[in-house]
Amino acid sequence: MIKIAVDGMGGDFAPEPIVKGTLAALEKFDNIEITIFGDQEKMGPFLKKHDRLTVVHTPDYLEMGEKDPIKQYRTNKELSMFKALKALKDKEVDAVVSAGPTQALVVGGHFIVRRMPLMKRVAIAPIIPSYDKRGRILLDSGANVDLRPEHLRDFAVYASVVAKTVLKRENPTVALLNIGTEEGKGRELDVETFKLLKADPEINFYGNLEPKEIFTTEADVLLSDGFTANMVMKAMEGTAKGLGMVLKREIKSSFISKIGALLMKKSLKNFKRSLDASEIGGALLMGLDGVVIKAHGSSNDFAFFNGIRQAKEMVEADVINKVSEALEKKEVEEK
């Protein structure tokens, strides 16, 4: 049985979508048990009894606009997010899912769960939509602004394991986000990382990838520092939202357009789903010594359900142990 801890109070609209997504996951998957940490009084209207659900009353929780998560951790370790992470640290659960503040989850992950022994940094790695509907791993999407080439190489190793074991890519490819496809393009970080990835026999290196190809590329892992990848991710989200607004405006522009929209209702629904990250799940905090999934702060119950599904799949694939083995092998080879 896979045991998952849920931060019941994390998210812009918590606790309703969190509780509903949790209950939906319990109904869908019969091999999971969930412990939800949160204010029982606030969660109560949405809770239902379930033999695989445990509720831990935790009245204190982080606000989504929290500016100083380190101070919060030092002064109150009884917050719902931190208690869920502590359960992972103590091996009471196999994974944690939270839609709470991203930096607080990164801070809690560092201080409570800790990094894997051979990982020097932690990356935020969402699975983003793609044209072929299979998704792509984008990292680091915001945990680190300053990285060294060896950090990015470690991220590439980790993400390749996830792509192979969870996304079922037979020989996953890693692309380096850059301003051009030619070798030698970009900052010193990009040039040195390119050399490191190209020379690594354990990494199937695609080469440089321009951001304009993100939605259509065949590469499975899209790699860059936290500033660049975060900008890319937010640009994708904004573009998807803008396209939806333009499409809606044009449909309303005339009677014939409205009739056409009715005839294309199924196609328009599929179009929306193709650009919707909630169809895939949350972001994995790669580098921690345990599975931690960051669901989007504005997650609805379906998006949070997918975050739990994603955590389940990570545990089933034994990702943490397989990454440890890959990093240990690389360390031995380098010595």
Automatic annotation (TrEMBL):
It catalyses: a fatty acyl-[ACP] + phosphate = an acyl phosphate + holo-[ACP]. It is an enzyme of class 2 (transferase). GO terms for biological process: fatty acid biosynthetic process; phospholipid biosynthetic process. Gene3D superfamilies: Isopropylmalate Dehydrogenase. GO terms for molecular function: phosphate:acyl-[acyl carrier protein] acyltransferase activity. Its main location: cytoplasm. Pfam families: FA_synthesis. GO terms for cellular component: cytoplasm. Pathway: Lipid metabolism; phospholipid metabolism. Signal peptide: none annotated. Its EC number is 2.3.1.274. Homodimer. Probably interacts with PlsY. This is Phosphate acyltransferase.
